[in-house]
Amino acid sequence: MTNLMKLHTLLLMLVVSSAMILGSCKKDDAIVEGDKTALTTLIATADAIAAAAIPANYPQADIDAFKATLATLKAAAATKLTQVQIDNLVVQLTEALATLNSKAYGYIDESLYLNAGWHFDEGTGTTATAFSTVKHVATFTKGWVALLGADAALPTWVDGVKGGKAIYLNKGAHLEVPYTTSFLPADITISAWIKMDIQGWENNCIVSQNYWWGYKFQTQSAGKPMFTWRINATSAADKDANSGIVTPLVWTHVVVSLNSTTKVMKFYINGVMVQSYTSANGIDAMTRTLSFVDGASTYTAQPFLIGSFATDTEIAAKPGNFNWITTANVASFKGAIDELKVYNIALADGQVAKLYNDEKP
Questions:
Q1: Which of 68, 102, 136 delimits the end of a domain?
Q2: First-to-last CA distance in the chain?
Q3: 147, 290, 311, 323, 333 from 315: Cα distances, Å
Q4: Does one domain contain both 64 and 196?
Q5: In the structure, what pLDDT confidence band is assigned to residue 10 with cuts at 50, 70 and 90?
Q6: CA of residue 84 relative to chain centroid, distance
Q7: Same domain, 78 and 170
Q8: Residue 241 and residue 275 in contact, taking contact as beta carbons nearer than 8 Å
């Protein structure tokens, strides 16, 4: 009798187990599987990144964490999933990739630190719109018309440093952007690719915000990158990349950074730091007040200029500041500019190197 009861119990368990299994199969069969094409492509990309990730580029702990997450997501992706589940895996893997990228040595979070940036890839029209969070519009403008007359020119489009387009400037041609405080951060890095026509063009101005009453970034007559900035109510300072010279007719990456807190200024050419200055060399914080009165002159915020020193209106209003300008010393850029960026931090050496390697041809 006891054995018979055990047999009945066993049969009952088998029936219940079979029902559970069949129920599970029916439930799985009921899933409408979604399209995994995007997920499969993303996994392939993630696999390639995981295989290439080395401690020279990322902290080992972050590499290990990414690979563990990837393995978990790949295991989930191998099962039968609804479209919602697939989409969730895409989101999770995208976030994991972004996290790993943020840990890369030299990573710059441009959503936080890029105040303005232009690719200049429009290739047509008379404006260039920034790709940064704030879509600053730079308008093509003739400059130095009183000096150059009919020879004053507008910017033109040319081939860029890496397959896109760039702007070409000559004969006073420049771009003007309405001023906002984002163009005058406490700490600043200016990055650009330039291909200047000649080395000996004095005051070859890449960008200017109120010239020496704010700052300007240029190359000087020897071809060295140079930065001028206002340090107090009555004084400006300037420094150049003493040991760095830009070769004409060659696309060259030039960067200047100023940390107003540590009072350190650095110049870079093609990703390499070529000159560093500290407070012992006269580096001081940049003054950020553009509206003031100096003698008989009233100063206000001017447009942010790409490729020129000052606007025609400013020159006409303050001729004494610009009596040195001649056709041989126009103080506007002569050549091409591409991938212009203004950051609100002083980039570290590794960040500049990564920026150059990411953008170079």
A1: 102
A2: 87
A3: 11, 16, 6, 9, 17
A4: no
A5: very low
A6: 34
A7: no
A8: yes
Domain residues for 59? 2-102
158-185 pLDDT, tens digit per residue, is 999 999 999 999 999 999 999 999 999 9
One domain, residues 144 and 59: no
| Domain stops at, among 42, 76, 102 | 102
Nearest partner of 129 among 355, 334, 340, judged by Cα: 340
In whole angstroms, what is the distance from residue 116 CA to residue 308 CA?
Answer: 17
Number of domains in the chain: 2
Containing H/E element for 225?
A: strand 225-230
d(CA 193, CA 336): 8
Question: Measuring CA to CA, how many Å separate 273 from each of 37, 46, 253, 257?
Answer: 44, 33, 11, 10
131 and 75 inside one domain = no
Contact 137, 144 (CB under 8 A): no
pLDDT score, position 173: 97
Q: What is the CATH number of the domain that holds 269?
A: 2.60.120.200
Distance CA 114, CA 264 (A): 20
Distance in angstroms (rounded) separating the CA atoms of residues 337 and 211: 19
Helix/strand/coil for 72:
helix
In the chain the beta strands, taken as DSSP E runs, fall at: 114-118, 127-129, 137-141, 156-159, 165-169, 174-177, 188-196, 204-209, 215-219, 225-230, 236-240, 252-259, 264-269, 272-277, 292-294, 297-299, 304-306, 335-343
Q: How confident is the model at residue 88 (pLDDT cuts 50, 70, 90)?
A: confident
pLDDT tens sequence across 203-232: 899 999 999 999 999 999 899 999 999 998
| Residue 16, pLDDT score | 37
Q: Which tokens in the block code for residue 67?
A: 């690979």
* pTM for the full predicted model: 0.79
Query: Higher confidence at residue 268 or residue 55?
Result: 268
- Same domain for 26 and 117? no
94 & 177 share domain: no
Structure token pair of residue 218: 């240029």
